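Hi, here's the filled form for the chain we discussed.

Project: internal
Contact: R.S.
Residues: 245
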Amino acid sequence: MTLAIRGDRTSCFTVQLGPRTWLLAVARGFGTIGGLATEAALLARLRGECERRVRSARFRRAIDRPQAAATAVLAVITRVNADLYVGTASHEDYVTAAASLTAVLVVHGQAYVLHAGATAAYLARGGDLMALSGDDVFEDRRKPVLVRALAVAPVLDITISNTILSQGDAIVLLGRRLRDDTERRALLANLDASDPGEHVLVARFEYDDAAPGEFASVSRPPIFARALARTAAAISFLIAAVITH
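And the returned structure, exactly as it came back:
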């Protein structure tokens, strides 16, 4: 499996964690943390945490197995969220900084989507786009309200789902959800451009020496993905408790 990546590297993140494992992410936020714009602080902390953990033999073994890899990356993002929250001046009545994050872990042809906020992930296949993430924005009469995000609480609230990739599929990460069919057509027409746009990351997957059957059709999220989502809050609470004390 090979991966060709194009896009906005200031708001997006890519790292190869193993021979067949990549982590892709897009962030968008407001406020500052440690003198950096929140989305830049989030991506920098995410890169640093990945680089730190990949030095561990245990982590390297985990990220080569799909379910273990998803659990390992969930722990990474949970730690990043806790660290960011400590660096903000947010409290229950006022949020000073927050960031939306959509991350896609690709391991052995499977894609795990971890999402919180207004960013989005899509699967481009056969001239069409399929949404891989939900929408955490509540449309209030006066202004949109972000329901979930990173850095707003010590306990991470995030959704996790997964799908299986096929030959020629492209994962598209965006700083916001597409509003209508006009935007969908425009994005599809621009998928192979050298610069697909601001807050856009396109990762296209192709065969190289992949084992037969490594790629298959899109599948529904398995029970594992739903169970993993239920454990996110518990992991977040434990990490936050360690940091606090």
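Let me know if anything looks off before we file it.
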